[in-house]
Batch of 4 targets.
Target 1
Amino acid sequence: MSRASPPAAALRSALGALALAALAALLPSCGRAARSDADGRFLVGVSQANLTEPWRVAMTEEIREEAGRQRRLRMIYADAADSSARQIEDVRRLMGFGIDLLIVSPTEAGALTPIVREAYARIPVIVLDRAVEGYDYTLFIGPDNERLGREAGRVASGLLGRRGGNVLEIEGRSGSPPSLERSSGFREEIGKRADVRLFEPIVADWLRDRAEDELAARGPSLPPVDAVFAQNDAMAYGAWRAFRAAGRAGTAFIGIDGLPGPMGGIELVRKGILSATFTCPTGGKEAVGYAMDLLLKKEGIPKKIYLRPRLVTGESLAGGASSEARAGPGASPRRGPIVLGFAQVGAESEWRVANTKSIKSAAAKAGIELLFEDGKQLQGNQIAAIRSFIARKVDVIAFSPVVDSGWDEVLREAKEAGIPVILTDRRIGLKDDSLWLSFMGSDFVEEGRRAARWLVETLKDRDEVNIVELQGNPGSAPTIDRKLGFEEVIRDRPSYRIIASESGDFFRAQGYSVMKGILAAEGRRIDAVFSHNDDMAIGAIQAIKERGLKPGRDIVIVGVDGIKDAFKAMAAGEMNCSVECNPILGPQLMKAVQDYMAGKDLPIRMITSEGVFTAATARRDMIGREY
Ligand code: AHR
């Protein structure tokens, strides 16, 4: 069993004292309303899974240090000692002390989901590192574990060179999301090599000693191993110790965490014990920053933030070049404004118009010189625009890809020109994610799920539900992903059937013409319309009315976007639901550009926070909406 490392023991006693002191100060005010106290300070509870893993010790230390810089925060810490039951109690106890916001790093996703949902119903909740199931929290901050696994796979493949070889993976806690995702990314990458044999993994629960013991037990039966990928540095070090004790040589060890300090991943690489590791930002500092933003009710807080890992090798430590998209030129003295090139999809919908307006107004407000090109729905136009930005040597390029493939060449040109690319709104299918710096936009798959969940709940008493699907432009991320999410939810419900599915390219007029054709063919069989955006839904409403049917009653209509005209249609009883897709990405984009230019690391992905709107509250909800 692993012994807590000295820093952990010191931190635990410090936190223990802190927590006790905070509780003593609070006892008279137990159960107070969640608001700042007399001198404007807020109370934040921190529920940590354990203080035995060095990475968690570092996370908690980071939270403590950053909170110490925030005059308006008082903190209470709880260490669950890796017990889910205890962490549930910890969260309940923290709530009982009237905290204004909860930061929780769960032991396990499933076990902690109910109590996090309960807390979220009352106060903002920031989930750190390991997610919970669903979306019942305010903000998730953590690593992109699948990408970490893929990058570790690339490093392992590179270390094996042309000779190929045998690879062993050491997993953290079996079945935990981080472990599953890291493994998935790693195997996807390594699986590309026919000359690489991947052994049955070893599970070591993130612990150094467990990895050492497991390998010592299994070592003799193991054939030669050319590379070991351990899902954290502690287990990689344990594996290395076991191989050394068994007299094995010639094995490369790859880890994750890249912590500084004694026997942290950085030192293990410096000593040549590890061939590579990845810094995996703990998110502690970001959590405190966003906690303040939430408590001060600032706008534009994302729903999910995936932090950027950095590859650490002997070469990078020696100051060698790294192939990755580095943080910006830093605070180098600038002559004139930042120049941003933006290639837009087109002007196909009210959503797109609002998106363009947001980008232009945010650039003007930020003093950023914006070169804006309208792609008019054609990938060729967007590619030409990006090339023009490269030729004009802009500082940063951003675009919303009209389709999800075919960007490799132009993105390589931008990379060779040393110009970073930020994706907004729509992702691309490119797996070589070193070609773009950051993504900000929606989770389109979840939007599809939300549309289907609403429909299933609304029509649950029907024996059969025949659905018409109006798709967006073929090959685009929203079309692919919304369909994916919608079908995932209805897949196990045979009474829900998509009887017609055609593209209206996100245009209102095409939504009308496509629906008119489907009505002629299917007539009264149609029970519902699932439209990939509100514009096409509104076109379909016109066609339904012309057919002599009542939209919103004879045919239930659910769209995506949450545009003003959808609210008007819902208020008029002609539409039933709109799943929000937030186009107001301008402020986030400009902040990312400024952060990059200031040399800050950008998150790999930022997912916007969105809701679901129905006819029942449309009149109230539409008041004050920005688009
Ligand atoms: O990429 C977002 C989608 O593109 C919106 O849902 C749609 O209205 C727009 O055309």
Target 2
Amino acid sequence: MDTNFLLAPSILACDFSDIGGALSLIEKAGGDMVHIDVMDGHFVPEITIGAPVVASLRDKTKLMMDVHLMVSEPEHFIPLFAKAGADYLTFHYEAAVHIHSVIEQIHKAGMKAGISIVPSTPVSFLSEILDMVDLVLVMTVNPGYGGQKMIVPCLKKISTLREIKEKSGFRYIISVDGGVNAENFHQVLASGADMIVSGSAFFNGSLERIIASRPESPDKSLFFPGKGTGGGEN
Ligand code: DX5
Ligand code: ZN
């Protein structure tokens, strides 16, 4: 099994009174990004973290910030998260009308752009924009809460995205979010995922052995080929 994957622990599952401590834990585990779940109480029921919190974490870590917007009309939040220091800004296909324009706005603001799909949205809906995005976030639970059980049939979408990526030469990172645990981890990787987002399983320690099995210096060039329209460095 190829253990050369990117890891983005989600602080949604950490102790919110000690997010600094959670960042240290992610760094120690060799995390590549910190996944930050932003919820607006409208697109999803909960309200979590906003741009001011992201801004205050920016100076505390060198980790790339992978901000997952679970908000309606994400276009309104682009300048705020750019200013806060987000590296990747991912929004939901289901939450925006002018997807192409939102991606362009994220790039213009100097960030990498990600698009996310909920379990009921097929990959085919992304066909016109897959060449533009830097990351595709496949939700394997319905967004809104951590600690849910993975909806396994969603893994087919990862294989589809992998196939398209290989045929087309598009450079998006295939990221998977929701219910990843020690039991299904290898199945997720075998489907073709580049990056694993994990909240509960990362913070309860059950992924420790899998994470430790990663090569000491993973070949990041596989994931960050450094070409395309993205706004960031990499
Ligand atoms: C859910 C969030 C996820 C969440 C994953 O809506 O987008 O990032 O933190 O948590 P686990 O790994 O517990 O499913
Ligand atoms: Zn998320």
Target 3
Amino acid sequence: MSAQDEIKRLTAPDIFARKGGEPIVCLTSYHAHTARLVDKHCDVILVGDSLGMVMHGFETTVPVTLDMMILQGHAVMRGSKRALVVVDMPFGSYEASKEQAFMNAARVLKETGCGAIKVEGGTRMAETIAFLVERGVPVMAHVGLTPQSINTIGSFRAQGREEAGWARIEADALAVAKAGAFSVVIEAVAEPLARKLTAAVAIPTIGIGASVACDGQILVMEDMLGLTPLVPKFVKRYGDLGPGIEKAVADYAAEVRARTFPGPEHVYPMKGKKV
Ligand code: KIV
């Protein structure tokens, strides 16, 4: 491959520069093989801490550890070439102090090779975000519904449904933008508020359940593929892979039980091409 053919990976500044421009396509991925598929179509791959619920079956994202995020972040980097890979900082890895946040964010950047990290929280995280950005850590922020706060907010309900709650979320978005975040995820807020936030901040807003009035969108991949049993109401299913997988497994099980499972003569040489 010549130097010209090499695929240049998108960076946090590239995504920042897309404010108000072509919509930014983001999706989660936790594995090398799905990252390879997502990479062809998306600008940002988020290794979200939603992996705790999606891959591991936890009820919330709270039990997710830094080591889990690093392992999957590394896998996604191996599977992708072009998209900016952002790795979520899990609950407990960044809130205690800005120094704790830097030490753990530096570990994530060094050990995965990803291009940015994401932290939840607005005004309360602004000082930490500024500290990280000043020290070379690109930060995607996350306001509105912040799932890591489940034990204090009580449920995964939409935020800012009443106009009275808008000011706090707007202050959060403005604070993270001022602190130097290169983009901000806005989760589960009503369209008029998403529109207001997108107009108010100079960084791209990435919506999840926050209407089209954002600079980009993100979904949890397994949710939009129909692979998770329970999804938020706003999720559109672009695929329904569950029944396909179940049928393939059932066909395989039937062949094994009927002793019609193909022998080695059907298996070697390897089929397909190396990816
Ligand atoms: O963890 C995650 O997947 C996320 C997205 C839902 C934005 O934070």
Target 4
Amino acid sequence: MNKPVVLVVEDDHSVRNLITTTLKAHDYRYLTAANGADAILEASSHNPDVVFLDLGLPDMDGIDIIQKIRSWSTMPIIVISARSEDTDKIEALDAGADDYLTKPFSVEELLARLRVTQRRLAMMATDASEAAVFENGELRIDYAAGCAYLHDAPLHLTPIEYKLLCLLARNVGKVLTHTFITQNIWGSAWESDIASLRVYMATLRKKLEQGPDAPQYIQTHIGVGYRMVRL
Ligand code: CA
């Protein structure tokens, strides 16, 4: 199994170093952010597998970051904070954090929490791959046959439109950024790819949606990306 990419959000240089050194020693890939604005940018553009989040950041409270990320993603968030009151933990977990680690922490515990999250991710991936047919509203995708249907009638999609539809379907409910989509479809994220993406998305929607002004299946998040809505 691939090691997940961990986004480490921590303004304290020494703590950040401790975490990234630990991750590196165990072959994890990681990204870092030292403030809230960078954290949100990294999370949205790189779609990491797990986020380690400090709550006390210079520009923003970590709770706000959890809420922001939760507005478009279910990526696991593990809070690592010096705040040790139960009320702080409850607030973070209620906002959508998956786990809570109190500073000072041991690196063994940090790695153990990460392994638990990995197991959860692996289980989710297995569930998703076992479903050979995706159904959402009147849309059905038969992954094995490589065909999509709407109201039981085949959708005549170009290969790229089909790839786009599958990518959105496999991540149903999540906002996928322009960069994430173009990297998955074309393996790159040039401005020209993003322009092409708009064109393909428009032709896909023409085939999929009843009215172009009221898309039912694919939502646009202006300046961010697209999301398939679970109907
Ligand atoms: Ca801090």
